[in-house]
Amino acid sequence: MSLRKDVSLDELARVGNVAQFVSFSPDPIQPRQEFSRVVGFDANHKFSSLSDALRSLLERSPEGTINLRSFTPDSPRSRDFHYGLADLGQIEGLVRSMSADGLFVIANETVDVSDGGVSGVIQGGVAEFAPDDTPRCVEKGGTASLPLDWALALVETVYGIPVETVDAGRGRLEFSIHPKPRGWRQSHTLMWEYEGSDSAPAMAAVKWPNRFSRLIGDKTFGLLIADVMGLPVPRTTCISRRIAPFTFGEATSSKEIWTRTCPREQEPGRYTTVKGWLDPFCLLNGEDPTGEAISAVLSQAAVPASFAGAAITDARGEVVVEGIAGEGDRFMLGQKVPERLPRNIVDDVESFYHRTKERLGPVRFEWVHDGERVWIVQLHKGATDSAASTLVPGEAERWETFDVSSGLEELRNLLHRLPLGVGVRIRGEVGLTSHFADLLRKHQRPARLSESSAA
Question: Residue 373's CB: how many other CB atoms inside 10 A?
Fold first, then answer.
């Protein structure tokens, strides 16, 4: 038999932080206070009156508002729900009305779910979460889904705070994490509801883009996944639009840095990546003045590059490793063709590929080798349809020829203006792992290397 909702909340408050609340049982004349957790008062402090309880809660709510949730003893599911109330007289009237109707009522501080934090659920060794939402976000699409240890490490890195939750075991714990202290214990983690369960351990569906990766940027999320997996990631500072700057990764032997724009979703080669420091705020304002495309700017430690390139999973499910000697930015932009790489470099990259694929499934990543080991500088999930001379499979009514010497932006423009049914033949040498190939795959436009290029 499940506990009544306010009883369950009282039990949870004994072991962790909960949003400030006062609960009432129904009475046709005067609602009876049951439980309370209000900052500055002892647990289950009995207030002198209904008005005193609601006033005390309202005064201590950071948003200056409270919510009212009602339910019946035989069902924990909410009945009437009122959000963001600020008028004490209105609040008291609603509590009295619902109580007279035989409903239990919980009054709790309003919690801003759009403060840059996340909400979600922990169950069966998996954490799922999203920003700008309540724990019910898991009932929608686009939540981040990670093994619990990965999720805790990632969230603690991003917010710089420990995640304080009870061990959910096989049970289901609803939680939220906030940049500012919240709740009765004034910590950064709130626990909303716990339900015991005998369900088997779950499997995380690790994939991005998701709602959280869009918050911090596609590159940032991929690098954080690489970091929590224990792969070498150059020391990276993320300067986000909505979250305080945070740093992760390992120091390299170089004192130089790369400045990398970080779109909400992968946009191959579209926005600035440059060696050296640029003003991130000027960069954001210049390349994305509306704030809709770029989530962050990354300052990443440079790796002294002996070789650099990319690795993908091709249409046959096999790894393709390409690169050049030195830094790989010109290769990725299609300005230099793949070179024959030393066997030991290929072996090192393939080793990282198989290690990553074992945990994530098919992946794509950009790498730099400093002569001693591989560093991951971008990580994406998923296989490609590319193989040999076919960059994107499919037939076309006719084919448009594009010369790689025209540049990546001209290809982007061409793809936007080409009508349906037209494929692209690429003239010139370009790698299957380059931004040229990535852009064609993103647009799902049938694309092949011309015969002279593939020869």
Answer: 11
Verdict on whether the full-model pTM lies above 0.90: no
Gap between the Cα atoms of 390 and 388, Å rounded: 6
Would you say residue 239 has pLDDT above 80? yes
Q: State how far the Cα of 278 lies from the Cα of 300, in Å rounded to an integer.
A: 12
Q: Which residues contact 288 (CB under 8 A, 6 or more apart)?
A: 271, 294
Tell me the pLDDT tens digit for each residue of 64-94. 999 999 988 776 555 788 999 999 999 999 9
Domains of the chain as residue ranges with CATH: 5-109 (no CATH), 118-195 (no CATH), 211-301 (no CATH), 307-381 (3.30.470.20), 390-454 (no CATH)
- Contact yes or no for 95/50 (Cβ under 8 A): yes
Beta strands in 132-280 (DSSP E): 144-147, 172-182, 187-195, 236-240, 246-248, 257-263, 273-275
Place of tokens 């976000």: 137
Query: Under the phi-then-psi rule, with left for phi > 0, alpha for psi from -120 to 50, and beta for the rest, what region is 291?
Result: left
Location of structure tokens 């716990």: 194
How many helices (H) and strands (E) the chain has is answered by 12, 23
Report d(CA 292, CA 268) in Å as an integer: 17
Q: Are strands 390-392 and 374-381 parallel, antiparallel or unpaired?
A: unpaired
Phi, psi of 248 (to 5 degrees): -150, 175
SS3 366: strand
Q: Are 434 and 408 in contact (CB under 8 A)?
A: no
For 372-413, what is each residue's pLDDT tens digit? 999 999 999 876 655 556 778 888 888 888 888 888 888 888
In angstroms, the CA 305 to CA 317 distance is 28
HEC readout, 403-439:
EHHHCHHHHHHHHHHCCCCEEEEEECCCCCCCHHHHH
